[in-house]
Amino acid sequence: MLEPWEQRLFNWVIIFVLTTFISLITFFVV
Fold first, then answer.
1. Residue 2: pLDDT above 80?
2. How do the domains of the chain map onto residue ranges?
3. Which of 1, 2, 12, 17 could link 6 by a cystine bridge, Cβ 3.0 to 4.6 Å?
4. How far apart are CA 21 and CA 19, in angstroms?
5. d(Cα 30, Cα 16) in Å, to the nearest integer?
6. What's phi and psi for 2, nearest 5 deg?
7. What is the CA radius of gyration of the chain?
8. Cα-to-chain-centroid distance, residue 27
9. Which helix (H) or strand (E) holds 11?
10. Is the separation of the CB atoms in 2 and 10 below 8 Å?
């Protein structure tokens, strides 16, 4: 089980990776 701060950090990392990935895709597609 993750600690609360680890869970928050994990969520932030996922959000950051998703936004970066999406922006890269849109950058190369457009």
1. no
2. 1-30
3. 2
4. 5
5. 21
6. -85, 150
7. 13
8. 17
9. helix 4-29
10. yes
Tokens of 4: 């609360």
For 3-25, what is each residue's pLDDT tens digit? 888 999 999 999 999 999 999 99
Letter for the amino acid at 19?
T
Question: What pTM does this model have?
Answer: 0.62
The C-alpha atoms of residue 12 and residue 18 are separated, in whole angstroms, by 10
- What pLDDT was estimated at residue 5? 85
Extract the tokens encoding 30: 């457009």
Looking up tokens 């457009």 gives 30
Report the C-alpha dihedral over residues 15, 18, 19, 20, rounded to 10 degrees: 120
